[in-house]
Structure formats: structure tokens, C-alpha cells
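Summary for the steering committee. One of the milestones for this cycle was to obtain a three-dimensional model of the protein with adenosine-5'-triphosphate bound, which we needed before selecting residues for the alanine scan. The sequence and ligand used are listed below.
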Amino acid sequence: MIAPINAPTQAQTALMLDGLAVDFSGFRAVDGVSMAVDHGELRVLLGANGAGKTTLMDLISGRTRSTEGHVYVHGQEVTNQREHKIARAGVGRKFQIPSIFSGLSVRKNLEVAQSARPGVLANLRLRLGADERVRLEEVLETIGLADAGETEAGFLSHGQTQWLELGMLMLQNASVILLDEPTAGMTQGETAKTAEIINRLKGSHTLLVVEHDMAFVRDIAERITVLHLGKVLAEGKVAFIENHPEVKAAYLGKQGIS
Ligand SMILES: Nc1ncnc2c1ncn2[C@@H]1O[C@H](COP(=O)(O)OP(=O)(O)OP(=O)(O)O)[C@@H](O)[C@H]1O
């Protein structure tokens, strides 16, 4: 069969889920989720508490084993592989608790992330090539920390710490980045800056972002996928989702999106 011209092809798709499900002793927290996220797309995952958003991220990143379905990254099947193998396939995940080296400078943290060598000590002794240095400076700029390269990471603000971790993911060559509530605990100013940084990553990175703050979602999202009771309830552009009657009923209650 010839595919319609606008149908997503394997080459366009960075992350593809096909009937993904997990059964926790009879409870299906994720229940047959299929979705395709294009290269360079930013997709927001929306859903009420317990809808299955974090579990879906866990299934993609290999933290939890699925009981049904498939995960493909850049066309390569990674279903139920070990976390480090899925990371090697290009999936990077940022948790709310950052994993930075607080005693090292911002720049050193990025150098450690950039090096493929295992072990911090080996990485500290590593001399980066010219191309790598250029790339590191670009990332420092992108994450808004160009003036804080020599600052000890332990002295960064909450927001700056989150941005540093994003930079580390970028330098680990994570082409598909999973973010779970990236603005949690941030000030309004930090949230706005996070939106700017995330918007800069679009095109070069594929992002799947779980977020509840609708003002932030409007700033970053192109398309939204809504989960409800482990299933996809709706998918589409922001305005479509905000006016979707079933989404309003299931997730937003009588007040609508605020
Ligand atoms: N290991 C597990 N065993 C049993 N049930 C689990 C397990 N992990 C998650 N669940 C359940 O699966 C459901 C989905 O949880 P999940 O954390 O994915 O939801 P969520 O959409 O991320 O919610 P929130 O917005 O509150 O973080 C919840 O009812 C949760 O209690």
C-alpha cells in the first residue's frame, strides 16, 4: 500500500510507541498507548494525577518493563532494553532531583557529560578537542549559563541547576529528551527562562514533556497528548485540546484549563 504523502514515516519519527502497556498485578497503569513524535517536535503529555504519565516515561526509558507493546527510537526497537542501552539509543531523561556534581564548576560538569569515558576521574583528566570545546560553549549559551561557567554547581539556583542538567543531557547526545515537570519549584522568572531554553532545543532535539502549568504549556507546546486512566484520550494542537469536551470533563473539571 502506498502511504499518503503527509503520513509520518519511520524516518520522520524520533519516538514511536505502539500499543504500550504495563500491568501491575491486574492494574493497567498504561493501557495500550500508541503515539508518534516527529524529529525536532516538542510533545506535551497532559493528564490528571495517576493518569499514567510518569509510568509511560518509565516504560520509554527502561526504568519499568512493559508487559505489552513496543517502543522505537529513531526506528530502532528498544522495548524492555536496559536503561543504559536505551540511553545509548539517544533517550535522555531529566528527573526532578538533579544529578550534577555539586563540587565541580558548571563547565566541568558539562565536560564530564560530554566525555564518553566512564568515571568522573577519567573525565576530569580528559582534554576536549576543538570541536567539542565549541559545542560545549554553544550549549552553555543555549542553557543561559555562559556567564556562570566557572561557578561551582552547588552554588547555582534551583532553576540554573535544572538548566545545567539539560545541558548535560544535550552533551550526552540525547536526541530524545524526556522531562517530568521541568518547572516544578521554579519562580515565575525561572519558568519563563525554562520555556525559552526548551524552545531553543526544538528542531535539533525531540522532547516529551510532562507538565501541569498550562501557561507554560502554551509557551512551549505544539501538540499535546492527553492521557486518562492509562489510555490516550485526545491528541492535537493546544487550542483543540483546551476546547475538547472529553478532556475538559476528564481532566480539567468544570473550571476548564487555567
Ligand atoms: N510500580 C507500581 N505498582 C503499582 N501501581 C503503580 C506503580 N507505579 C505506578 N502505579 C500506579 O499507576 C497509576 C499511574 O501512576 P503515574 O505516576 O504514572 O501517574 P501520573 O500521571 O504520572 O500522575 P502524577 O501527575 O500524580 O505524577 C497510579 O494509580 C499509580 O499509583
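Key point for the committee: The radius of gyration is 19 Å.
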